[in-house]
Write a structure and sequence with these properties.
This protein is an alpha/beta fold. It has 10 helices and 7 strands. The chain has a 5-stranded parallel β-sheet, sandwiched between helices. A two-stranded antiparallel ribbon has the order 3-4. Helix 1 crosses helix 4 (80-97) and helix 3 packs across helix 9 (222-231). The termini are far apart. The mean pLDDT is 93. The structure holds adenosine-5'-triphosphate and magnesium ion. Adenosine-5'-triphosphate is lined by residues 38-39, 41-42, 45, 164, 166-167, 183-186, 189-191, 202-204.
Length: 267
């Protein structure tokens, strides 16, 4: 279905494939134009992470799995980019964790709501909350369409997974007493800073890993989940991610400096 053919040997094939997915779903009305820009910002941070799941993200994924499994009313909040990249995985994760799936958009239009709902249903979702009149409740402190949530979903949830969220809304959900799990490539964003647990990783990699971890942890029982949460320090974990970027940048700068000594440039 992709509009251009990406050679398997291309050094950045994976990143290009993700771009193509987003462009396709942009054309179908699932992804907002601003979603494409948000993706670009994510790509820049992914480059800094080496385009792989870093060790602190794996720890945060474990904590996220534990908090989802111990939750009473977990909800997975889905926007256009998330649906475009991991619709099937979201449905699988919801099944394993008994979570509800809710469409929650920054740029809410009836057409986009329905396009995302359809995509999720095609991926196997039986019920999709937050669409049309169902999103009748409001998150306090937020203006306009951004505040609308489903009274059977995010409004009464104790744990909300928000892959790719905006900082204001993350903060508002935390203020409502909810535990918020964010997946955000930018460890400096307000979302990353405000969430209860932040997974600094690409949703395309993090959600499949979260499924795997949740399956394993489910077999080990709730006591194991509580232990993991007890020993997890969210702020320290976020600091580790930032430090890792710092170290990678230092190494990159050193290697460029070394090449100054070995390479000749004739201008
Ligand atoms: P904030 O509102 O939290 O301060 P922001 O305004 O810079 O952040 P938004 O556009 O509100 O950014 O949210 C998009 C966020 O999602 C960005 O931080 C971006 O880096 C991140 N992002 C984009 N694509 C991905 C992806 N595929 N996986 C994970 N994170 C992503
Ligand atoms: Mg924002």
């Amino acid at each position: 279905m992709t509009s251009i053919k990406i050679p398997k040997t291309h050094p950045r094939a994976e990143s290009l494939k993700i771009r193509e997915k987003l462009i396709e779903h942009f054309k179908e009305g699932v992804v907002a134009s601003a979603g494409l820009i948000a993706h670009g910002s994510g790509e820049a941070f992914d480059y800094l992470l080496g385009e792989k799941t870093i060790a602190p993200a794996l720890k945060a994924i474990e904590a996220a799995a534990a908090i989802l499994l111990t939750a009473e009313k977990p909800v997975i909040s889905v926007n256009g980019n998330t649906a475009a990249l991991v619709a099937e995985e979201i449905v699988e994760l919801a099944k394993i964790t008994n979570a509800k799936i809710e469409v929650n958009l920054f740029y809410r239009t009836p057409e986009r709501e329905i396009a995302i709902k359809k995509l999720l249903e095609k991926a196997g979702a039986k019920e999709v909350l937050g669409v049309g009149k169902r999103a009748s409740a409001k998150i306090p402190e937020l203006g306009s369409e951004r505040r609308r949530v489903d009274p059977r979903g995010i409004l009464i949830a104790d744990v909300v997974l928000v892959p790719l969220e905006d900082g204001d809304r993350t903060e508002a959900l935390v203020k409502m007493g909810k535990k918020v799990i964010a997946v955000d490539l930018n460890p400096l964003s307000r979302t990353a800073q405000k969430a209860t647990i932040t997974i600094v990783d690409n949703v395309a990699r993090a959600i499949p890993k979260l499924i795997e971890t949740t399956k394993n942890l489910k077999m080990q029982g709730l006591e194991k989940c509580r232990k993991i949460l007890h020993s997890f320090n969210s702020k320290r974990n976020l600091a580790e991610s930032i430090n890792l970027i710092k170290e990678r940048l230092s190494k990159a700068a050193k290697s460029v400096e070394l090449s100054v000594e070995t390479e000749n440039f004739d201008f």
